[in-house]
Design brief:
Elements lengths: L13 E5 L2 E4 L4 E4 L2 H4 L8 H13 L10 H14 L5 E5 L2 H16 L3 E5 L8 H5 L16 E4 L4 H11 L3 E7 L1 E2 L5 E2 L2 H14 L2 E5 L23 E4 L10 E5 L18 H16 L2 H16 L6 E6 L2 E5 L7 H7 L3 E2 L1 E3 L3 E4 L7 H15 L7
The protein binds pyridoxal-5'-phosphate.
Pyridoxal-5'-phosphate (PLP) binds next to helix 4.
């Protein structure tokens, strides 16, 4: 049997990983500034993570949601503490798309409405409603197409206001990333997030903060939306939540009430996933990783801004993007092949940095020196 050929892959096999480094099958070491697509939050194969998941595996890997699973409650308690959303309710699933699918569905159940506002260049996943709310027609199958999603320009306060004025009583939800990831590291303005909060409250719509990529401490706050000092009604999360173990979830504000059978999943909230997610939160706390993400991210952004060849350096914490002029269009490939550094990209010309939140100053310097060498930038500033 062959694999279904849907991924553009590098001809590299990764066989080992530790912290911010990975190794291929030939023993070559790479610096991971991509975090396996923003997934590695506390560092590869962190000993506490390995120990907690192994211990759980030796006790119980799985039982269904037909019985009490106390480790789910342990996770809910810890997530409430670390995120500061202690009065929210947790529903666990397995991926980012599934988290957004459940968030959108719940908003529709809660309001009895059908329309969703999403934004240009958004990415919310590949399941039916999540992909319908994603601004990329090439991944929306005919069966996923719907008139229920309204796309507005990100940060356009007038069009948001006008949309609510025209059809506010039909809007079930507004879904927005605090920083668009796949769309190219586009920051949602704080005033725009505040406006979404106000309009959702005024019109009885649900504010969904897609935090799958920009959440879980990556930007230096638990949710990037927290910078705007607003509380969303639902936050979706995945990627960094399990440091590579597949786990996702939504947290739901207390005014949204559950009904028996409203949402459900076979694998979501399984004990192994909960052990992985708890290990992540424990390490984030004990190693102050949110603070590290803020500090190291600030340093990287400052240093990158000293390199005039790189354009429009932007981001928060360890979610950073910059644009490449035409003459540097091969930089990402050259960083990988010549410098053995993985980075992310966004079409057409953006490099995305999404490393582990434990990235050290030394790792950051290694990256900066390598990029300087590739683009012939002046030496690092002290
Ligand atoms: C903001 C955002 N939402 C949702 C998703 C979908 O997550 P998953 O690939 O786990 O389904 C992604 C994935 O890149 C994402 O960046």
């Amino acid at each position: 049997m062959k694999l279904f050929d849907v991924y553009a892959i590098n001809n590299i096999s990764i066989v080992k990983a530790k912290g911010s480094y990975i190794w291929d099958d030939k023993g070559l070491q790479y610096l991971d500034m991509y975090g396996g697509h923003a997934v590695i939050s506390i560092g590869h194969t962190h000993p506490h993570f390995v120990q907690r998941v192994s211990e759980q595996l030796n006790k119980l890997a799985f039982y269904s949601n037909s019985v009490k699973i106390p480790i789910q409650e342990e996770l809910a308690l810890k997530l409430g503490q670390v995120s500061g959303k202690e009065d929210y309710q947790l529903f666990l699933c397995n991926s980012g798309a599934e988290a957004n699918e459940n968030a959108l569905k719940l908003a529709s159940f809660h309001t009895g409405r059908k329309k969703i506002i999403a934004f240009k260049k958004s990415f919310h996943g590949r399941t039916s409603l999540a992909v319908a709310a994603t601004d990329n027609p090439s991944i929306v199958a005919p069966v996923n197409r719907t008139d229920n999603v309204i796309f507005l320009a990100l940060n356009d306060e007038d069009s948001l206001e006008a949309c609510f004025r025209a059809q506010g009583n039909e809007i079930a939800a507004v879904i927005v990333e605090g920083i668009q990831g796949v769309g190219g590291i586009n920051l949602t303005n704080e005033s725009f997030l505040q406006q979404i909060r106000r309009l959702c409250t005024e019109h009885g719509a649900v504010f969904i903060a897609d935090s799958v990529q920009c959440g879980y401490g990556r930007t230096g706050k638990f949710f990037s939306h927290d910078y705007a000092d607003v509380d969303a009604d639902i936050y979706s999360m995945a990627k960094g939540m399990g440091n590579g173990f597949p786990v996702g979830g939504i947290i739901i504000a207390p005014h949204i009430q559950p009904k028996l059978g409203m949402l459900g999943t076979t694998f979501g909230g399984n004990p192994l996933a909960c052990a992985a997610a708890l290990a992540v939160l424990e390490v984030m706390e004990s190693e102050s990783l949110m603070q590290n993400a803020a500090k190291t991210g600030e340093y990287l952004i400052r240093q990158l801004r000293e390199m005039p060849q790189l354009k429009n350096i932007r981001g928060k914490g360890l979610m950073i993007g910059f644009d490449l002029p035409e003459e540097l269009k091969d930089l990402r490939k050259n960083l990988l092949m010549n410098q053995h550094i993985f980075t992310g990209e966004a079409k057409p010309n953006t490099i995305r940095l999404l490393p582990s939140l434990a990235l050290s100053r030394k790792d950051a310097d290694e990256f900066l020196e390598a990029i300087g060498e590739e683009i012939h930038a002046p030496a690092l500033q002290a």
